[in-house]
Amino acid sequence: MLIEFPLTSMESKDLITTNDRLFNVTSEPFRTSLNNRFLKTNAASENLAKALNKNNKSDYTPRLAAADNVRDDSFRCIKFGVLSATYNQDPAIKAAGKRLLRVLKSHNATLYSLSYVSQTAEMKSLKLDLDEMTDDLAVIGMTKEYKDMIDAIVAFETLYSEKTKEETNKNLPLVTASKK
Q1: Tens digit of pLDDT for each residue in 31-69?
Q2: CA distances for 132 relative to 103, 107, 160, angstroms
């Protein structure tokens, strides 16, 4: 006899299959309860499938990915350029590199692994700090790379804003959860 069955730990597709099988071997009132659970789970699963459908993919997705890669690479260029400067034999370059490295370390060193929103916030904060250190960036020869990083941040943000404005008006399927 089945006394307890952990339905909550199952994935939707497993729950639906198990429900189908149990439905055929149960009697009332358990059958009604099982059917209600099945209908809710199946509806939620269908809504999720619609919302995640590849046809809903934004036209912006490949462009945002490319812009994000440029932004990530521009940060890496600064990061590794600064790190390289800390090993330079010229005392002025080495000192400037160490000051810049302290600033970089105060931010997420792998910020390119963050979400778009978190990465943007971190990069804007980093930019504010580095704006105060343009002399040190010049000493280590990273002025152009710093400008490139700022341009990459602006380009990404511009594209992301376009996407947000355009897609706010689209009627995309929503995934909602309800508990009763």
Answers
A1: 777 677 767 777 776 766 665 555 556 788 889 999 999
A2: 10, 15, 27
